[in-house]
Amino acid sequence: MSDVVRDLFDAIVSGDRDLVLSKVADALSDGLAPTLILDDGMIAAMAEVGDRFERGEFYIPEMLIASRAMQAGLATLKPHLIDANVESIGTVVAGTVRGDMHDIGKNLVVAMLKGAGFEIVDLGVDVAADDFIEAVRSRPVDLVALSAMLTTTMPQMERTIRALEAAGARDGLKVMVGGAPVSKAYAKQIGADGYAPDASRAVALARSLIE
Question: How far is C-alpha 38 from the chain's CA centre?
Fold first, then answer.
């Protein structure tokens, strides 16, 4: 790993947004391939952030700061990735289900998925089943990620899955769920393809479902 990419990696892990922007510019100026900057600098850094979270060394604030720094750098790098015809791993439509206004967990998952190379369509919070259906129909989508942080809104996950099926939008489409009250057993009960207990493991799940 070159020095500038190592510095970029460290800047993302530490959440230094300004340094991330500077190091992305330096790496491009040095003629490094956008894919190398993405893979070795950004994706590797977010993987390290996820590992530190699982080890209890990082908490939600550190993850949020790192993800925001990474996204700032990614915004600078993205035009160069497009010019290089770099394709995303897959497209994910994400949202917190109808009646639920919580977004911290969903935002972390979105940030980690972006950092791993996924294209994200973030529908926000309080998202109706029809909005998920519209998003899936308007573009090629590989995966839908549903979040619920309240026991009272958990049934909206199943309603959304059933609505996708009834609309004929589930063929070849994977659905993963998560949130504080959600469990692996509940995910299986409602017909989801997978459940992730936290943002870092959501990335591994998303990769496995698309593969």
Answer: 15
